[in-house]
Structure formats: structure tokens, C-alpha cells
Fold this protein.
Amino acid sequence: MSEKSQRRRKALASGTGVAIAIFAALAATGLSLTGPLKPATPDKPTNAEAPKKTDWRGVARLALDKQEFSFAEVKFKAGVLTVSGDTEAAEDRARAFEVVKQAVLSDPSHVGVVLALENAITLGGQAMADAPDAASTMGATPDAKACQTAYDTLLDGRVINFGSGSAVLAEDSKPLLNALAAVAKRCETYRVELGGHTDARGDATANQALSERRAQSVADYLVSKSVPASLLGVSGYGETQPKDAGGNAEADAKNRRIEFKIVEDGAQ
């Protein structure tokens, strides 16, 4: 190889080494010959899974099966977990419901999802008068929304009954009133208005007075169950706020009611 060719190869080698050194130095400082290097963008997850919802019916069924309560059935609808079936033993009826209750309450994610627990197990074919339990499922510190939801859940499809034309509470409404009292005691941070309503039959003035007396009867009963009287407001609306204007017996039954409405902070 001629001396001239050797000098050319050395120059090329030297230039390549310098170029490599320059690129290495630029990379180390986050720069390139054309500007700053863009940081690598991490791949975004494409198959992110949504949080799984708890199968509360399945939770209850598993708890019952472990204790061999094969007679019991479970339904979960509109936030109410209902245990049904039939047994001849009152102890088994109570134990089966308690097993489900403990299984649900032991999982904190039930709050705001399971709104009430209902024991609808019949005893020797005889229906019992239990009302749903909406107090146990509310969590440690229920807010106003949770309290209103509990009242609404208990009164959904259920009414507080009175003697015809009177403010005397019917005995068959006591279990429901007890369940409402339990919620009121859990929600003692909030005042609640008990609003009495009647149907449109009879004199409007008389209906107004009757609605007030009925609301007061409910308040008196709740106080007898240790609900502080200071948390309860009483109002009568008579026939002025019907839920159903149909004018038939079915509509009248819907319009005769006591409503529970959270109205303000109950702290004094």
C-alpha cells in the first residue's frame, strides 16, 4: 500500500472516532444534532380491567352453603339482599340470616351497595313480620345521603299504617317503625322531618289535621325507642301532595303515607 493510501485510511479512522465521541457526548446530555432527544413514551395499557363488582348474592350463598342451610334462598335487588326459604326451626331461621349478615358486613365494600338486609324466611310456612335492616349496612359514619337512602329503602313499597280515620298506629307497622328508629339513631347528626299525607277523601281541613296527628304519632313512637326528640320535626300536608292522582283505591293507598326527609344538620 502506498504512503498516500495509508495516510487516507488513518484520516478516515480518526474522523470516525471523533464523530462517535461527539454523538456519545450529545446523548449523555440529552441532545442530538437536531435538538433535544424526546424521552421514550411508556406503552399505555390497552387491556386495563375495570374494578370487579362483588357478587353479593354469591357471597351470601357461599356463607349459607358452608353452614349447610340448604333451605335458604338469596335475592339481591335494588340494594336489598333478601334471604328467603322455609324452616320449621326458629333457631335455624335466625342463624341463617345472621350468617349472611356477618358475611356481608365483614366486607367493607358493601357500604353504599348493599342498602339493607331482609329476613324473609318463613317459619313452618308462616310469614314473619320482620322489616329489613337498613341500619347495620350504613357504615361507621353515614352522611346525609346515606341516611336519606336508608329511610327511602325502608319505605320503598312499605307504608306505616294507622286505624281508619285515626292516628293510632297499627300493630303490623311496629317492625317497620323499629327499623326506622334504628336508622334514626345511626343518623343522629341529622334532623329529619316526618311529613304526614292523606288521600283526598273527606274534608280538606280534617285531612290536614289528621296528617299532623299521624306524623306526631310516629314521632312519639320513635322517641319511645330512644330516638332524641330534638332530631324530629313534624309536619302535616293533608291531601295537598298526592303521589298518585288516580282517584281510585290504589291511588288513595299510595297517598296515605308518612315520609322521612333529612332537612338539616342535627348537631346543637
